[in-house]
Predict the structure.
Amino acid sequence: METDAAFFARRARDELLAAGKSVHPRARQIHLDMAGRYTDLARAIDPGASPEEDQVQAPERASIWF
């Protein structure tokens, strides 16, 4: 069974892939924002968790979004 941290890291990867396929700049930014939020959730559970494509910089966030 997939751990919560692994689930959130996988979802972050999925969002990064979707951002890379997005044509519209606003859609791309929304996917990047979601990737950052999923990465934050994964790291809150496991500080070592991160998506493979973690080179993409997510915008700064003041709090975790649900």
